[in-house]
Amino acid sequence: MSEDLVGKKSETRIPLDEVVVSLYAAQQKIYPRSTFGIFTKWRWIMVWVTQLFFYGIPWLEWGQRQALLFDLETKRFYIFNLVFYPQDLIYLTAILIISALSLFLFTAIAGRLWCGFTCPQTVYTEIFLWFESKIEGDRAARMRLDASPMSAKKLGRKAAKHFVWITFALWTGFTFVGYFTPIRELSSLTIHMSLGPWETFWVLFYGFATYGNAGFMREQVCKYMCPYARFQSVMFDDDTLIVTYDEQRGEPRGGRSRKAEVNNKELGSCIDCSLCVQVCPTGIDIRKGLQYECIQCGACADVCDTVMDKMGYEPGLVKFSTQHGIANKWSKQQILDHILRPRVMLYAAILSTLVLGLLLSLWLRTPFRVDVERDRGVMSRISDDGKLENVYRLQIMNGTEETQHYQLSATGLEGLRLETEQDEENEGDEEHNNTVIIKPTESRWLIVDLKIEDGSAEPGSHKIKFEVKALESQKVVTEKSIFLVPR
Fold it and tell me: In this structure, are 313 and 378 located in the same domain?
């Protein structure tokens, strides 16, 4: 190939510029504007209710102990007058199922009310934003502060804000650990700087999570991390109450003076002030319709009603309504009449059944547990008195907070006799024979001997029953086992 031809080919080559395409959009910081109104008031009411419960319950005493305590060291869970053991895991399972069904029910009725008013992420973000506004100022002041160059004033405000955030987050972590370690004991250990490694780790971990999620990540947790936002659509339908923009009334939107006619046919009620976007904690525009980022806090409805009031327009351009209600222009009563639909009734029926079943189970719950194990070292033997003997290990767990007396007996074979170790208080007392005493919330292992006359039963395995009776409550627990007769 000649040099001229090579040169011509090289001249025809077209250089391509390298283009870098980012798969991730830059995250712009959201500065929610403060507002007031009925939904804002309810949101703050829920903030106070949830936080008074969270921070106050660990300090509440019940008798001589903490009212709500999940004591992992002793493997006992105290919920007011109830004492649970790991064997009571079925109750936790029932509570989780009830919580899930409750979420389905509330979502079918009124959308993401949980997210907007009681979710910890929403609650703590609201608290952290309140701290931020008190230290750095309102929305405009915060935006100016962040855009300004670093100065002593800016450094001081930022340092004060983060100091308050970190202090509150550590208090939150301390309270969280107080549900698992008695909080008064935890307080004493903290004051004397003698916290254990696990308590220290969880206080710092939970505090860091609160500081990071509520102080920095905020709406990103709701938009990208929370799975509820992704599957909520399967629980919505056209009769679910959601924060809705009345497009028929609001469009076409446009700015105008306050003196403009209310019934201007060229413009809708929306004056395009964008305040609904400015107050939104996730930064969405509610006028674009239902979006998965919407947590239904109602801030846009509050601020829009304020604007409508100033303009002399009817409120409710943005409101809690249903898609059917907006499309058909239903009244509030018509909307409420369509809430009790088959899906809601089914959820409510299942949820009511589970709640009643759980309450009934707790009401009928026997306040002690019994476990029976055969002594593997002794299958069957002849005792010193010439009787055939089987040995068992019996565990009795006292689930009450009072000392209890338990009387033991066994049935299933003729002439079956039970012998066990005696408490010192009952030594020589025939009336309280085979009665054991167990202290509050404690468990005890007993060696139990069952005896029959040698030759009175056929060789093989015989079914028997142990009966343990609580003398104070007169409740009885029965456990099955077997008695072996050798050939």
Answer: no
Statement to judge: residues 278 and 213 lie in one domain: no
Show the beta-strand stretches assigned E in 348-434.
368-374, 381-382, 387-398, 404-411, 417-420
Query: 267 and 194 in one domain?
Result: no
Residues 82 and 182 in one domain: yes
Residue 252, number of CB atoms within 10 A of its CB = 9
pLDDT tens for the chain, 487 residues long, are 444 444 444 444 545 556 665 555 556 889 999 999 999 999 999 999 999 999 999 999 987 889 999 988 888 888 888 888 887 888 888 988 998 889 888 888 988 888 999 999 999 999 999 999 999 999 999 999 999 999 999 999 999 999 999 999 999 999 999 999 999 999 999 998 888 899 999 999 999 999 999 999 998 898 888 888 777 777 888 888 999 999 989 988 888 877 666 566 678 889 999 999 999 999 899 999 888 888 999 999 999 999 999 998 999 999 999 989 888 888 888 888 888 888 889 989 999 999 999 999 888 888 888 889 888 777 788 888 888 999 999 999 888 888 899 999 999 888 899 988 765 455 544 445 688 899 888 888 989 999 998 888 888 899 999 999 999 888 899 999 999 988 7
For residue 392, is it within any domain? yes
The whole domain housing 98 covers: 38-232
Do 281 and 419 belong together in one domain? no
Q: Do residues 157 and 182 both lie within one domain? A: yes
Residue 20 lies in a domain: no
β-strand partners of 381: 389
Of 215, 232, 249, which residue is a domain's last?
A: 232
| pTM for the whole structure | 0.80
Pick from 217, 175, 181, 218: which is nearest to 197 by CA?
181
Question: Alpha-carbon distance 427 to 434, whole Å?
Answer: 10
Hey, what are 31's tokens? 């500065």
Tell me the C-alpha distance between 462 and 235, whole Å: 55
**Of 285, 307, 332, which residue constitutes the final position of a domain?**
332
| Distance between CA atoms of residues 365 and 357, nearest Å | 12
Quote the number of domains for the chain. 3
Strand-pair category, 318-321 with 82-84: unpaired
Give the SS3 label for residue 88: helix
Shared domain for 159 and 81, answered yes or no, is yes
Is there a domain that residue 14 lies in?
no
Closest CA to 444 of 423, 466, 417: 423
Q: Which two tokens stand for residue 167?
A: 């202090």
Structure-token match 């936002």, residue found: 229
Distance between CA 142 and CA 447 in Å, rounded?
72
Is residue 457 left, alpha or beta, with left meaning phi > 0 and alpha meaning psi from -120 to 50?
A: beta
Residues 133 and 277 grouped into a single domain? no
